[in-house]
Amino acid sequence: MTTSTQIRMAAYPLGMPQDSDFDTVTVDLPALADGQVLLRTIYLSLDPYMRGRMSTAKSYAAGLQLGDVVLGGTVCEVLESRSDDFTAGDIVLAYAGWQTHAVADAKHLRRLDPAQAPVSTALGVLGMPGFTAYAGLLELGRPEQGETVVVAAAAGPLGSAVGQIARAKGARAVGIAGGPDKCRILLETYGFDAAVDHRSPSFVDDLAAATPDGIDVYFENVGGAVTAAVLKRLNLYARMPVCGLVAGYNDTEQPQGPDQLPGFMRRVLTLSLTVRGFIQSEFVPTHYENFQRDMAGWVRDGQVRYLEDVVDGLEQAPEAFRGLLSGRNVGKLLVRVGTDPTLA
Amino acid sequence: MTTSTQIRMAAYPLGMPQDSDFDTVTVDLPALADGQVLLRTIYLSLDPYMRGRMSTAKSYAAGLQLGDVVLGGTVCEVLESRSDDFTAGDIVLAYAGWQTHAVADAKHLRRLDPAQAPVSTALGVLGMPGFTAYAGLLELGRPEQGETVVVAAAAGPLGSAVGQIARAKGARAVGIAGGPDKCRILLETYGFDAAVDHRSPSFVDDLAAATPDGIDVYFENVGGAVTAAVLKRLNLYARMPVCGLVAGYNDTEQPQGPDQLPGFMRRVLTLSLTVRGFIQSEFVPTHYENFQRDMAGWVRDGQVRYLEDVVDGLEQAPEAFRGLLSGRNVGKLLVRVGTDPTLA
User: Fold this and answer.
1) Which residue from A60, A259, A270 is facing B255, i.e. has the nearest CB?
2) Which residue in A60, A243, A265 is closest to B236 by CB distance?
């Protein structure tokens, strides 16, 4: 009998998630049925969208029930298999969530090839965040040669991919991040054309200086004050793919006035803006294959670089998740739940 | 020497335009140069967009300068011509504005054929409002067979065209209007599937009852409380073409809180909405020819009906314009500035 240590939802967080919103339990896993495999978690991905599921609010995806294992993408090792498609030792992309071991249906897994790329990248640049950047920017943002693309949380896995893909397509990439260290990473590691610190008192002026020709694509993943500043720089026919609003995820009350919506809609009207919400799964059927080919190529030839921020131990997940929501980490945040056998 | 009586912008209105914001003067018109014609105004179109030009705010179009003749589409008779393209007696679509006579370059005019349709329709169902409905609905709203299309100010020339085009394309049309008389017109004259009175205390519930399958396309031309109610009924992947926000055109202060923008953006995200501002001129090159063909056909075969609200005398324009902004009229609002020689 294999046991799994699990972190479960104990209460819906009000504002920033607290330790008391989570329970840690160790359970016996059931025996494998036909078509199932036993998994050991190596890496757990932490992503902002998880905060949205820790709620009963209506969304494109069902929220977590109290008592559920917290969800999340994982890279796992197959320990035992009752499926013809996998054998023990295979490394797979799974959706095991915040736990050390899991029983999963083989049909929901994808085998990873450690010779192609480090397996952790399946949760980052070659996984969901990278694909969100790729599909949202190319299908909805549609930057043209020489246009200006702006993205916030630009040091993160999504924002850094947006900026680098924009440059690969001949656009000018301007990244917004919190603090001078992250801004330096934008310029030096990711090759953004300009970096703007949203914590600086001169942020609004700095953004204007960094976008002398205005903004043609704003890839929205934060909301709040950053968005308000960006709106003033948008050009006629600008596009605004919206894949996240992390600035407001922990809000517990209706934001105070004045009401910004009429002014926003007036700008939509007078600038002929396109504002489009999306979740990456919409574009999997049409864009995933191209993404795998293009992104793997860009990573191989150095056009797209990535950083990882790895935290050790499942028990660190709640604190690491709070850090993510506060903008404390740089690069793709992963929890190493167990040893990675593909590393020497 | 011909004179023209003109209504000019004397001051930028604060809120609802006042008589004192306008000046009436009579001026001598210059002699015709080569390629010019002398026009006598028959019909002047009054449209909500004009309020936006009575301002110094940045927009897709330059605002009026103080002293300018107020702008507007007109149907005119050619009195004298120094152009090979027009002769005296021709009826033309022009942009002469709020005045009785004008000198215009022939290249900006389009000849109308009174045998094809009443010439006044060139300002309504076969003109700018009809084209805005056609291009915005078909290119941006893209209703599918059986989907639900909602439009407000639905008794007006734009809204009534949106609803009838939606039905011509096999969609379900729900109109919102102010008061039971307008709602009756929606059902009896325009053939909407349902009509909802936004002045009723049960408006929010009535809208829900009228949209049992939710809303797939909301053609936005009003804003404000109507929009807030519609947002709650939008379906996944709903489209929202935005061509006007008349509810806020006279606002003089930032609207009071709470701030509705974060909630709006959350809905854009979780429902994968598309919000797209536009002005009809964007689609003239690609859609105008099809519009002329389709709309003329629909009007001829009775699939699209229209109403006109004609006010006599240029001096009535300011008061009629206030009525338009207050929702007082039904159908396309026209000022008959001079006699229509095409009427028996």
Assistant:
1) A259
2) A60
Interface of A with B in 228-267 (CB under 8 A): 236, 242-245, 248, 251, 254-267
From the list B223, B251, B262, which residue is nearest A248 (CB)? B262
Q: Which two tokens stand for residue A115?
A: 């010779």
Nearest to A272 among B260, B265, B279 (CB): B279
Question: pLDDT digits over A279-324, tens only?
Answer: 999 999 999 999 999 999 999 999 999 999 999 999 999 999 999 9
**Amino acid at residue number B200:** S
DSSP codes joined into one string, A157-187:
HHHHHHHHHHHHTT-EEEEEESSHHHHHHHH
User: Angle, to 10 degrees, between the axis of helix B128-135 and the axis of helix B284-300?
Assistant: 110
Cis peptide before A143 (omega within 30 of 0): no
> Which residue in chain B is spatially nearest to A269 when comparing CA positions?
B277
Number of C-beta neighbours around residue A212 at 10 A: 10
A53 touches chain B (CB under 8 A): no
Phi, psi for A220 (deg, rounded to 5): -90, 115
Of A275, A255, A257, A256, nearest in space to A265 by CA: A275
Residue B297: phi and psi, rounded to 5, are: -65, -45
Mean pLDDT along residues A11-36: 96
Of residues A155 and A253, more confidence is placed in A155
Helix (H, G, I), strand (E, B) or coil at B263: helix
Single-letter amino acid, residue B344: A
Beta carbons of B296 and B271 less than 8 angstroms apart = no
Strand partners, B4: B27
pLDDT digits 0-9 by tens, A197-255: 999 999 999 999 999 999 999 999 988 889 999 999 999 999 999 998 876 666 667 77
Q: Is the pLDDT of residue B254 over 80?
A: no
Domains of chain B: 3-122+307-336 (3.90.180.10), 128-300 (3.40.50.720)
Q: Which residues of B touch A262 (CB under 8 A)?
A: 223-224, 245, 248, 251, 255
Q: How many residue contacts between A and B have a Cβ separation below 8 Å?
A: 134
> How close B231 comes to chain A (CA, Å)?
13
Tokens for A187, please give them.
Answer: 């310029």
For residue B157, give every residue at least 6 positions away whose Cβ sits within 8 Å of its Cβ, in sequence order, or none.
B124, B125, B129, B130, B306, B331, B332
User: Do residues B6 and B24 touch, judged by C-beta distance below 8 A?
Assistant: yes
The partner residue sitting opposite A245, judged by closest CB among B251, B265, B274, is: B265
pTM: 0.90
Q: What ipTM goes with this model?
A: 0.89
Which residues lie across from B41 on neighbouring strands?
A: B76
Tokens of A74: 């994982």
Find, among B167, B170, B200, the residue nearest to B182 by Cα.
B200
Whether B164 and B298 have beta carbons less than 8 Å apart is answered as yes
Cα distance between the two ends of chain A: 30
| Residue B56 contacts A, CB cutoff 8 Å | no
Nearest to B134 by CA among B286, B330, B331, B342: B286
Cβ separation A261–B258 shorter than 8 A = no
| Interchain proximity B273–A275, CB inside 8 Å | yes
Residues of B in contact with A59 (CB under 8 A): 270
